[in-house]
Amino acid sequence: MLARGAIKAALRAWYASEGFTETECGQLQVSPGNEAHLHGFETAFEAENGARTPLYLNTSPEFAMKKLLAAGETRIFDFARAFRNRETGVRHAPEFTMLEWYRANETIEAVMADSAALARLAAEAAGTRSLAFRGAVCDPFAEPEVLTLTGAFARHAGIDLEPVLTDAAGLAAAARKAGIETAPGASWTDVFSAVLVTRIEPKLGQGRLTFLHRYPVSEAALSRPYPEDPRFAERFELYACGVELANGYRELTDAAALRARQVAEMDLKQQVYGARYPLDEDFIAAVAAMPEASGVALGFDRLVMLAAHAPQISDVIWTPLPVGVRP
């Protein structure tokens, strides 16, 4: 836990040197997020007259922080408490710390450089020169590997992704040829995720950091498409020791596209889980008003876990869920 405190102090000092303002976004939100496979904690606000308004604990501070960008903030970060149901295990905790930051009017390359710098700072603050996890070692001081999704699929799974970018059956056939079975009728995203998790992610961040970038636009989340090739999105993920550490975007500022994506995600959530979350109309309005920006969400507990060479995430959380309620 001393390493956790030292890392947080080092990162705060770095943000101050870069001219960032620390925010403290509220944890109660109108919507916990509008991704189909994201599961929030539900609660309610009860007024003095007994009227109840449904609310959710935030799954990340993203919606709130983008409202701050729309209000005029330009460089902001937050060590935010975040809450997600259906997420436990060696690398997951239902309550965790999300380190999120945004640079207005700056490129995705700028926040990629930030991410690598923070990984190096974490190792230094923990008194080591490496990140490590269950036998895997990563040198954050080495030049990071930068790999596109199409390059990763070709290298690690033997799959040519571009010809099947919109062809679920074709991707499934390519996955079967590579030895990866998926359920009959699986969606393109399900097949993509199966290949990513089983064949690609374990190979990333081995020996040095890996930036996986240029995602198919169907996996854009809240990132914007590349203007020169809208088949792909300006999104990256950072890996160390096969562990995803950060997820970054050149942020989407098209409110109509945002609404369409969120409705589609909630339709899928309804189909798969029989539930949906409301849209945050203030957030959608903020996206329309915010400047061009790039941002990153980094799992702070995971970064500490790797810098401290800890075997599981609960080892670096001050008060993890009691053993009796952990699966």
Please explain how this structure is put together.
It is a single chain. The longest helix is centred in the last third of the chain and has 19 residues, at 255-273. The model has no long low-confidence stretch (mean pLDDT 96). The protein is 34% helix and 26% strand. Helix 1 (2-17) runs antiparallel to helix 3 and helix 2 crosses helix 8 (281-289). Strand 13 and strand 14 (243-250) form a beta hairpin. The strands form three sheets. Strands 1, 5, 6, 9, 11, 12, 13, 14 and 15 form a nine-stranded mixed beta sheet that branches. With 327 residues, the chain is α+β, with helices and mostly antiparallel strands.
Chain-wise SSE layout:
Blueprint: H1 2-17, E1 21-22, E2 28-29, E3 41-46, E4 52-57, H2 62-70, E5 75-83, E6 95-104, H3 108-125, E7 131-133, E8 136-139, E9 145-148, H4 149-157, H5 168-177, H6 188-200, E10 207-208, E11 210-216, E12 225-226, E13 229-240, E14 243-250, H7 255-273, H8 281-289, E15 293-299, H9 300-307
Parallel strand pairs: 1-5, 8-10, 9-11
Antiparallel strand pairs: 2-4, 3-4, 5-6, 6-15, 7-8, 11-13, 12-13, 13-14, 14-15
Helix pairs in contact: 1-3, 2-8, 3-9, 4-6, 5-6, 7-8
